[in-house]
Amino acid sequence: MVSFSGGLTSGKMAHDLRSVFATTEKVRFVFANTGLENEETLEFVNRCDKEWGLGVVWIEAVVNPEIGQGTRFKRVTFETASRNGEPFEDYIKKHGIPNQAFPKCTSELKLNPMRTYLRSLGWKNGAYKTAIGIRIDEMDRVSSKMEKENLIYPLIEYTKATKEMINLWWERQPFSLDLQEHQGNCKWCWKKSKRKLLTLAQDTPEVFEFPLRMEEHYRFAGPWQDPSGFGRVFFRKHTTAKMLLEESKLPFEKWRPKPVNFDLFDFEMDSAGGCSESCEVY
User: Which residue, 124, 138, 229, 242, is most buried by CB atoms nearer than 10 A?
Assistant: First the structure.
């Protein structure tokens, strides 16, 4: 199973693996849509699918509101995929707002629906490998459960691809992902660095409509309750979406592509919660 997140890295991995398999009988390219991906991401997945004959299976989580009942899946298409966060809101109603202390959104909105889909095909856990799009310069993101979960990292184990190599390859293709790095696949992911979030809040404040609404209606949803009475919010250090939008109106140095220079790294502004160009399933 190829976990196609919709980013440039996983797109290159999908292309490479499609060239290995003459048919798609022994490989499934799966894209799990949360409803909060940028439209450019959906268009990119659709274009890759059509250009390379991937046979991408589009799925979304179906969250059972009953406690103890697991998340299942439904198949969608590029045309019918949720665009307004519907699967994500269903997740929040049951489990509460995800954040650094409760990072379950990836497992519930991507991993579990993918596993349920594969079980519907008769693929048993442990009997297949899952390909994850992580580069060799991101080895710190490799799962400690790699062997237990039967994970493979083709861009690390075989091609040893770096970010520069991936970008150069895409520059030579007739199409690419029309997003900047700080935008990423998820419009406003709480794992992004503060600098990226503030830049997004200043440039495109409308993308925070969803977290604003979730924090207004579901701050106390889920089995865990904050004893302080503050409730759960998305962003680090108890920062709400409203607070981020207000802070973005103050002077700050916006995110911009620049060479890696650790002397210029600001821990408060530039540290992230594990989010690169995409959010993988492990």
Answer: 138
